[in-house]
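Render this sequence as a predicted structure.
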Amino acid sequence: MLCLTRKTDYALIALGYLAERQDRVVAAREISRAFELPEALLMNILKRLQGQGILQSTRGKNGGYRIGADLDGISLYELIRVLEGKVEPGCEHDELPMSSRRGWKPAPIRAIQSKLMGFLREIALSDLVLPGRRIDVPLEALKSGRPAAIALS
């Protein structure tokens, strides 16, 4: 399993919001209010993305952020690495067997993790945040509360 942190979640939300407003600079406060996100955490995330060239910032009274990179060339793996410093599949759970807690993983788990890392490297941010290109969850899945397979077009 891959556990995405709030940083990654908030970054994707902000990138989607900015992608829909590419014609203007957007303040962190506007994004924060639109999605009820903690403003201080969002500002730190946006600053980090700006520092990596993913976003451009404008200072001043009418300042804010806009997308500053080609999102086709940035993978979800890279976004997670920028925000977290490392990308590791899995979450810490007390119910893991002792061997798994010590770093040893059975072959099927290693295979799944390898495929997951490959997927994270292949999926471009543009496929997650750009209008008309987003990978959307079917409406039926949201109504039923059950996870659904996500179709990649």
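Summary. The longest strand covers residues 55-58. The beta strands are 55-58, 64-67.
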